Amino acid sequence: MSGVEAYPILSYWHSTKPIYSCDFNLAERKSNKFLTCGGDSRIKIWKFKDIQELDEINETSSNVDDITSSIKTHFRKAKDRINDIEYITTLNGFSKPVNTAKFSPCGKYIAGCGDDGYIIIWEEIDEESLEKYKKELAEKYAQLPQEQQFFIQNQLKNDISKIINPYNFPVKFAENFNDEYEDEYSNINDIKQLYRIIKYFPVTNLSANEQLEIYSLDWSPDSQHLVIGYMNTYIKIIDINESQQPYCVVKKNHNDVVQGCVWDPLNELIISMGADRAICIYKPKYTNSKLTDLKLVNRIVKGELDTSGKQENIFAQVDFNFFRKLQFSPDGSLLVLPYGIYKNTNGEELNCCHIFHRANLLRGLNKPIAIIPNLKKRCLCVSFNPNLYKNDSSLERSVLGLEYKMIFAIATDDEIMIYDTNKLECLMIIKNLHYYPIYSMSWNSEGNKIIISSKDGFLSTIDFKTYRFGDIYIRKIENEPMDIVNEDKKISTEEVKVTNLSQPSIINVLQIRKKQ
């Protein structure tokens, strides 16, 4: 499709280990800073270089023969893509693989969790404080003779460790995989950015010999709380400002591993999703401005997917070690859930995504308002473009009745599909980016780039270079309440289900043969 490019980036991001999660920092608009985490037990911070930096790189390589350049293979382009990336720093502290890491909405914090059962929260050291630290270190080492250069390097490493871990938490360090992307400070100028650990604790009682793995977490809109879901079927709410007892709420409403959880951007709902094929809908309860409880509004296992009113399972059965990455739309009006299934008229179970309206979730209704059907493979994760766009002027009626449109991507094992909320039609399909299943994806703040991570240990990008989703829509009232969807006005599933899509544009980026 014109204006869209999609390529894997051929680099060993996490020492050839799987990349379980990736996330852009949406608070730093236009910075294109993002994180990745994975099987090497580390979180790494990166950024895409800005246009000026890329122009300088391109100018340097402009001597390459035009003919040679024009016949560059996809492999060559994919390998060159690493030049677009700048490595910033590594966050250590986990002894086992890191399953999920996310920037807070304010952009100041990073939270990570994984198989060792610990939650670690980092705070970015602001530029002014970092420069102060670097100046103090420079003055300290200026008094030492050059012959002690080796000593200086070791001392610098120790001093940085004290800055990173000022409270001396007993953090653990995983095996070193000889990663090319690892912080090696030979001098003070090597320090680009630092994050200090402000919280470090296990999610459960380690002496109880419980299963520890944490599969999901999400930030509250105010960046003051975390919801986490883990192996022993519980979800917990963490107050990041509480030092003595960080867990303010603990709930057990799943019968199996909690594989995904998400916090409503309007702060009215928290949703968890488990291997028991259920989603649980909670409302946070506050006492004197402190979160003290969660009220279970509904637990959905079965729903009505046709006019007969018959209740059917609406989520697929999957192994416990999968992540279910659901997401709210940026305005909070819609919740898109992966791993959906529905039965066709022949009784066959088909893969799909279910879309719920927040008002119906609050009312305890089990019926989705829309379905993305007929997916060739299971849907693994969902990600929304963070922007709202003006409706197309030629549109007579928006399927979901919104006065603006939103863009979202859904990923199956080997495809990324882009949809808008105007017609719920597939705008484009991107295929063959990875050899192994996709684990995670994230949009940048400008809504013109997606990063995708995979079990194969590589990252890929979709760049909407000149492709436009529309003009940005500015809401008049921030966090305005959503109208209740009345029964008589509610959009039926059958009305919204798109079974006869017009043929979408397909971007088939790599001619590769899948491993069986």
TrEMBL record:
It is found in: Nucleus. InterPro entries: Beta-prop_CAF1B_HIR1, PTHR15271, WD40/YVTN_repeat-like_dom_sf, WD40_repeat_dom_sf, WD40_rpt. Transmembrane segments: none annotated. GO terms for cellular component: CAF-1 complex; nucleus. Its main location: nucleus. Keywords: Chromatin regulator, DNA damage, DNA repair, Nucleus, Repeat, WD repeat. WD repeats lie at residues 91-123. Residues 213-465 form the CAF1B/HIR1 beta-propeller domain. It holds the Pfam family Beta-prop_CAF1B_HIR1. It comes from the Eukaryota. GO terms for biological process: DNA repair; DNA replication-dependent chromatin assembly; nucleosome assembly. Belongs to the WD repeat HIR1 family. This is Chromatin assembly factor 1 subunit p60. The lineage of its organism: Eukaryota, Fungi, Dikarya, Ascomycota, Saccharomycotina.
